[in-house]
């Protein structure tokens, strides 16, 4: 887990107020944006561990780490829609580009990388046929 300092929270605060983040601050907090080829490479080398086949309702572990497949950012902010129990609706967005990167909609939380990983598997399965 990464150390969260006050700048990070400032970032969160600005986003939840719908303000635009100055580019310099973005870069300082999130590091440089990944290149398209780096993102492609990272998606190709993804691994997803479901804990055990019978535990698939538990959130998957994404290796080497979770990232946004649109820009490569590893920070997210979550929105809990706070719908009434027992229903669950939580969404997770990339902190940099604000694309949706995950969701739990009356289900386990799934990250968009899990779908990309499954696509990778399907593609390599097709290649070996
Ligand atoms: Zn992003």
Q: TL;DR?
A:
The chain has 129 residues and is α+β, with helices and mostly antiparallel strands. Helices cover 35% and strands 19% of the residues. The chain folds into 2 domains: 1-31; 33-128, no CATH class.
Number of domains: 2
Unique ligands = zinc ion
Order of helices and strands: HHHEEEEEEH
Shape: flat
Biggest beta sheet summary: 4 strands, antiparallel
- What's the N-to-C terminus distance? 41 Å
Give the % helix: 25-40%
**Would you report the number of β strands?**
6
What's the Cα radius of gyration? 16 Å
What strand order characterises the main sheet?
A: 3-4-5-6
The helix tally amounts to 4
Q: Uncertain runs with pLDDT below 50, 5 residues or more?
A: none
Beta-strand percentage range? 15-25%
Averaged pLDDT? 84
Derived from helix and strand composition plus strand pairing, the structural class reads alpha+beta
